[in-house]
Amino acid sequence: MLHDSENATHTAWSGPNSAAAMPRVLAVIPGDENDRSSMVFARRQMSSLEKRGVKVRTFFLSSRTSPSEVFRELRRFRQAVKQFDPDIVHAHYGTMTALFCAMGSAHPLVISFRGSDLNPTSDIGFLRSLVGRLFSQVSVLRAKHVICVSQQLQDRLWARPCPTSIIFDGVDLSLFKPIPQLEARRKLGWSLDSKLVFFNLGGRPAGKRLSLAESAIDHARSAIPDIDLVPVSKVAPEQIPLYMNGCDCLLLTSDWEGSPTVVKEAIACNLPVVSVDVGDVKELLAGVEPSRIVPPDPKVIGEAIIDVLKTGARSNGSTRAGDVSEENTTSRVLSIYQSLMPA
């Protein structure tokens, strides 16, 4: 589906400090427009850029696997490009999404890589994952700027024919902030006494290693019998801050990640984190206590959960929430857009 944020005529670029300087950006996001929990970080980024004055139209790419559907979408996309005449096309994922944008338009292309578009993944078959990552690498050759959410992802690029930046998806600090745990639990109708561990399941139980998380919780029950895992999937985005403030810690056991937004959200909510060393989690959690980085062993993870929960403390994450704020990351993306505008 296509969402147009404005109907104004296309104004000329006249310098970085003028109102006319704001670019027109066609954002291409994979997935269903009506599933508000899908690619929520990309949606929020573009909404934040709109608030800065960027003229945004969003194209939701409904299919990436059916050749006939992709070709139908390509015709629709080219019509959208012709109608909107963007200054920049921004692909909010690699694999077929980035290749689709590279094939469908000659306009300046920005690609954001977020994780499984460059990393291997156990969620889909080996061949499909390999082909998707190949599409990502080929698409880079057409890009004017590449954004990776972590250094680890940037290191996976085979070639860098254009400038690259490391910009993770920021957090809306007006939504993600500490509130009293009892208040959050009452609003959610949760038990006020049990220990609850937030687990971002999303649509990837294999890649998130749910079985490892469940084994770790089973081990933790030896010391904390009233502990439960809270697998979070298809939850309305506005409910997530309540979930985080209602839980006692976040558990992350993924096999691969780019820069997990859920960890940044936990930091902003003062939710302690127990995580395997994946993506840029080690850098994100530097100085955040109580939090633990652990190997992917259920007993070691379980002991870390016990250790964190027995402190009974929230983390000090909100003291450095500004480092992960959406405001900061939006400014950096806007600077990239403006650098691609004609002088």
Key features of this structure:
343 residues, alpha/beta, Rossmann fold, 2 domains, seven-stranded mixed sheet, five-stranded parallel sheet, 12 strands, 36% helix, globular, disordered N terminus
Number of domains: 2
| Class inferred from helices and paired strands | alpha/beta
CATH class of the largest domain reads: Alpha Beta
Distance between the termini: 33 Å
Q: What is the third-level CATH name, the topology of the largest domain? A: Rossmann fold
Largest sheet: 7 strands, mixed
Q: Architecture of the largest domain, CATH level 2? A: 3-Layer(aba) Sandwich
Low-confidence stretches: 1-20
- Strand content of the residues, in percent? 15-25%
Q: Using the CA coordinates, give the radius of gyration.
A: 21 Å
Give a structural overview.
With 343 residues, this protein is of the alpha/beta class. The chain folds into 2 domains: 2-170 and 326-339, Glycogen Phosphorylase B (Rossmann fold, 3-Layer(aba) Sandwich); 181-324, Glycogen Phosphorylase B (Rossmann fold, 3-Layer(aba) Sandwich). The chain contains 12 helices and 12 strands. The strands form 2 sheets. It has a 7-stranded mixed β-sheet, with helices on both faces. A 5-stranded parallel β-sheet has the order 9-8-10-11-12, with helices on both faces. Helix 7 links the parallel strand 8 (195-200) and strand 9 (227-232). The longest helix is centred in the N-terminal third of the chain and has 18 residues, at 67-84. It is globular and about 60 Å long.
